[in-house]
């Protein structure tokens, strides 16, 4: 019975069609006065312009409103993001070390499946969240956005494929920004429960061989026709 349960749980994580699933909750880091720096790499990723924060830490009393205590969908921690420095560097997460991942048998990319997000308490007219993805070996960018009206305070579960109607796969980098008002001013936002898929190199190669077989069958069907 024990082996059966372990096998079942193992299969949930190592599904052949999805690879290695990861749900990042950022709760395994201790904060000081409500903040902590993300280690790098963190689950194969490097994060820029983000900090781990604990919304209900007493240090934030009077600084953030109770409307933002729910930033940590899975308590106690979440990420706090905003543009960084005088050049307003966009908050992003990207593959930290391609060579190390390859040595570990992983393809140096990830699929973005879902995450919870909300802008910090904002007045009228509201805030727009922009998401941009960069694919492995391609100059192509994926883009999607969602508008948060003033007064909406619930974390929003973003399901990338369902809402954007395309798969956010084989990414090396994702940028997320929050723009406030008509002048698109930078605004802080919180993010939690980041769901990703990584892939074994063997799975990736098998996928390539499968696509090659499909193309070969297609060519044969054209010739036969």
Protein traits:
225 residues, alpha+beta, six-stranded antiparallel β-sheet, 14 strands
Topology:
Layout lengths: L1 H12 E2 L3 E6 L10 E2 L8 E4 L1 E4 L24 E4 L10 E4 L2 H6 L7 E9 L7 E9 L5 E8 L7 E4 H5 L6 E10 L4 E2 L2 E10 L2 H24 L1
Antiparallel strand pairs: 1-2, 2-14, 3-5, 4-7, 5-6, 6-14, 7-12, 8-11, 8-14, 9-10, 9-12, 12-13
Task: Estimate percent helicity.
Answer: 10-25%
Low-confidence stretches: 1-18, 220-225
Global outline: globular
User: Given the helix and strand composition, which structural class is it?
Assistant: alpha+beta
N→C terminal distance: 54 Å
Give the oligomeric state. Answer: single chain
What is the number of helical segments per DSSP (H or I, 4+ residues)? 4
* SSE order: HEEEEEEEHEEEEHEEEH
Describe the structure in brief:
This protein is an alpha+beta fold.
Explain what this protein looks like in three dimensions.
21% of the residues lie in helices and 35% in strands. The model is unreliable at 1-18 and 220-225 (pLDDT under 50). It has 225 residues and is of the alpha+beta class. The chain starts with a helix and ends with a helix. A hairpin with a 4-residue loop joins strand 12 and strand 13.
């Amino acid at each position: 019975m024990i082996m059966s349960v372990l096998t079942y749980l193992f299969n949930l994580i190592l599904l052949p069609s999805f690879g290695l699933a990861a749900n990042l909750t950022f709760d395994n880091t201790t904060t000081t006065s409500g903040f902590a720096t993300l280690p790098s790499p963190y689950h194969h990723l490097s994060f820029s312009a983000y900090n781990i924060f604990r919304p209900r830490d007493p240090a934030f009393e009077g600084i953030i409103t109770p409307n933002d205590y729910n930033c940590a969908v899975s308590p106690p921690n979440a990420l706090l993001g905003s543009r960084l420095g005088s050049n307003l560097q966009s908050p992003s997460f990207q593959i930290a070390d391609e060579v190390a991942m390859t040595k570990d048998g992983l393809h140096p990319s990830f699929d973005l499946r879902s995450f919870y997000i909300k802008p910090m308490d904002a007045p009228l007219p509201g805030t727009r969240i922009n998401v941009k993805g960069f694919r492995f070996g391609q100059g192509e960018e994926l883009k999607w956005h969602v508008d948060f009206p003033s007064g909406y305070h619930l974390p929003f579960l973003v399901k990338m494929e369902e809402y954007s109607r395309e798969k956010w796969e084989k990414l090396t980098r994702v940028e997320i920004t929050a723009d406030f008002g008509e002048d698109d001013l930078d605004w802080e936002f919180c993010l939690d429960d980041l769901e990703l898929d990584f892939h074994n190199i063997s799975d990736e190669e098998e996928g390539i061989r499968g696509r090659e077989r499909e193309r070969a069958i297609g060519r044969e069907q054209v010739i036969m026709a």
